[in-house]
Amino acid sequence: MGKDSALDSTIKSENGEEVPEVSYEDKLKFVSVIAKPMASRKFSKKVYKLIKKSSKQKNYLRSGLKDVQRRIRKGESGIVVFAGDVTPLDVMIHMPGVCEDKQIPYVYTPSRMDLGAAMGVKRGCLMMLVRKHDDYQDLYDEVTNEIASLDNQP
């Protein structure tokens, strides 16, 4: 009557086939060289929780390269979360520099599929912009402070 462990260790791919779930360390093997600051396993879960909470609020979560670029250019601010396993790298290599110019905190997570899953869709996502809202203010501030501490470490 308990949970079946085989069900817990599989995920559905984009084509609908079941694939065994990949561990955090294995996901780090596919991360690009520019993916710094990288969120730890515990911090990644906190970031995914923030994304899940912000997806419930209308217009407080921006996803995708084109939308995030446009919103940053128009002056929106928040936390930018990048996927670390993006290929080709050229499509988003300029975005960390843009975030630094606009003084927007950003962090990398190991997998774009995990970013999409945190948002509640079955597809992967390159990047997200999470805006501040009263419903998840404490978690937002906690994530912002931890990103600042990640930036200070070598």
CATH homolog superfamily: Ribosomal protein L30/S12
Shape call: globular
User: Largest beta sheet: what is the strand line-up?
Assistant: 3-6-4-5
- Overall SS class: alpha+beta
Task: Give structural notes.
The protein is of the alpha+beta class and 154 residues long. The chain has one domain: Ribosomal protein L30/S12 (60s Ribosomal Protein L30, Chain: A, 2-Layer Sandwich). The protein is built from 7 helices and 6 strands; from the N terminus they run αββααβαβαβαβα. The strands form 2 sheets. Strands 3-6-4-5 form a 4-stranded mixed β-sheet, sandwiched between helices. A two-stranded antiparallel ribbon has the order 1-2. β1 (10-12) and β2 form a beta hairpin. α3 packs parallel to α6 (112-119) and α3 (41-55) packs antiparallel against α7 (137-152). The model is unreliable at 3-10 (pLDDT under 50).
Descriptive key words:
single chain, 154 residues, alpha+beta, 60s Ribosomal Protein L30, Chain: A, two-stranded antiparallel sheet, 42% helix, disordered N terminus, nucleus, RNA binding
Give a short synopsis of this structure.
The protein is of the alpha+beta class and 154 residues long.
Chain-wise SSE layout:
Layout: H1 5-8, E1 10-12, E2 18-20, H2 24-28, H3 41-55, E3 61-63, H4 65-73, E4 79-83, H5 95-101, E5 106-109, H6 112-119, E6 127-130, H7 137-152
Parallel strand pairs: 4-5
Antiparallel strand pairs: 1-2, 3-6, 4-6
Helix pairs in contact: 3-6, 3-7
